[in-house]
């Protein structure tokens, strides 16, 4: 879900912001937390800088920290840098918990066990700096979970709202870390604009995830609000609309606008890509992944050419007059699968 805001050609200022947040994250949560250094926290820091809530980083700031510690004389941005780092670990916790619920595999339990203390520390620090923030964001996550259990699934335009509200809360809290000490109308307007950018980015992330995960979600029988490839195209369109609005709200020529424009090009390129076999189906075909509740069958070459291109044995195999077709042969090294263990032809899916 996260890592969406990764520009293909990042401007130098963006790379500096990324390195800056990385240093704050290491200071707060240790070097072992750096695999969860994300693009969304760096974008939050960049937006705050572009709206001049903090001083811009010097031109000679590093674009890769190389695990170097921050210099104490260059920490005027400490509150916002630490907030962005906390946000990154909070997002990591959301992802780890979500993976644990969805798959419940041993390595998901291991990852949560390994990083649970850092995630909980991030939540405590966020609440200490912005009281009630974590509970408000968790409430948005719970609303999304309710949508996942609804039958039929709600439309995508309704599903993206909780994520937008959650990002709105985070971006608003970050903008008001220093703005609370002033009553300047322009500063208050900037806070509202930053919060709006967060809302549109959050909604774009959900639309993107629903679109790119559609085939895998269908294959694994997981929740998706989309019903067809036409819906997938609509989800990509929604993602681009939300990003375009967010880009328009960013200051002209700012690195944050450049980042969003770069992501817009990435989404458009992904939308134009022809639909193909999903990563899950490819792994199934290679014998590296097995779905629960299915018995897999090996397809003979003549059968695999005609009907097993997506790792599914289909009804046409039953009518095949070719000897050795997958309609009457089963073993453990499959490229196709059935949902029963019987070897009778009528059981083929």
Keywords:
two-stranded antiparallel ribbon; mainly alpha; Farnesyl Diphosphate Synthase; 13 helices; 349 residues; single chain; 2 domains; 2% strand
Q: Return residue spans where pLDDT drops below 50 for at least 5 consecutive residues.
A: 300-349
The side-by-side strand order for the widest beta sheet comes to: 1-2
What is the gyration radius calculated from CA atoms? Answer: 24 Å
> Per CATH, what is the topology of the largest domain?
Farnesyl Diphosphate Synthase
The number of domains is: 2
Assigned CATH class of the largest domain: Mainly Alpha
- What is the CATH architecture term of the largest domain? Orthogonal Bundle
How far apart the termini lie comes to: 32 Å
Mean pLDDT level: 80
As a percent range, the share of strand residues is under 5%
Order of helices and strands: HHHHHHHHHHHHEHE
Largest sheet: 2 strands, antiparallel
Shape: globular
The tally of helices reads: 13
Task: Give an account of the 3D structure.
With about 350 residues, the chain is an all-alpha fold. About 60% of the residues lie in helices and about 0% in strands. It is built from 13 helices and 2 strands; from the N terminus they run ααααααααααααβαβ. The chain has a two-stranded antiparallel ribbon. The protein is globular, with a radius of gyration of 24 Å. The model is unreliable at about 300-349 (pLDDT under 50).
């Amino acid at each position: 879900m996260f890592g969406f805001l990764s520009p293909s050609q990042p401007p130098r200022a963006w790379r500096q912001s990324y390195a800056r947040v990385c240093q704050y994250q290491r200071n707060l949560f240790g070097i072992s937390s750096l695999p969860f250094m994300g693009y969304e926290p760096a974008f939050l820091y960049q937006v705050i800088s572009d709206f001049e809530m903090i001083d811009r980083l010097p031109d000679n700031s590093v674009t890769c920290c190389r695990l170097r510690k921050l210099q104490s004389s260059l920490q005027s941005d400490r509150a916002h840098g630490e907030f962005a780092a906390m946000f990154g670990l909070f997002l990591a916790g959301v992802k780890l918990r979500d993976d644990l619920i969805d798959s419940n595999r041993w390595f998901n339990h291991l990852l949560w066990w390994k990083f649970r203390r850092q995630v909980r520390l991030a939540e405590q620090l966020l609440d200490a700096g912005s009281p009630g923030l974590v509970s408000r964001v968790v409430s948005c996550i719970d609303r999304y979970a309710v949508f996942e259990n609804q039958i039929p699934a709600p439309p995508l335009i309704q599903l993206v709202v909780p994520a937008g509200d959650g990002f709105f809360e985070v971006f608003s809290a970050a903008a008001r870390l220093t703005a609370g000490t002033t009553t300047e109308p322009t500063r208050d307007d900037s806070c509202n604009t930053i919060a709006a950018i967060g809302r549109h980015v959050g909604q774009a992330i959900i639309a993107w995830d629903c679109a790119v995960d559609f085939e895998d979600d269908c294959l694994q029988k997981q929740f998706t609000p989309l019903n067809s490839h036409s819906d997938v195209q609509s989800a990509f369109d929604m993602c681009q609309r939300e990003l375009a609005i967010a880009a328009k709200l960013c200051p002209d020529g700012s690195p944050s606008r450049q980042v969003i424009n770069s992501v817009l090009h990435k989404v458009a390129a992904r939308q134009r890509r022809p639909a193909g076999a999903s990563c899950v189906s490819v792994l199934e075909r290679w014998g590296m992944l097995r779905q629960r509740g299915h018995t897999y069958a090996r397809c003979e070459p003549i059968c695999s050419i005609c009907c097993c291109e997506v790792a599914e044995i289909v009804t046409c195999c039953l009518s095949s007059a070719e000897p050795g077709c997958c309609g009457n042969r089963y073993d453990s090294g499959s490229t196709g699968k059935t949902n029963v263990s019987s070897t009778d032809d009528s059981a083929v899916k």
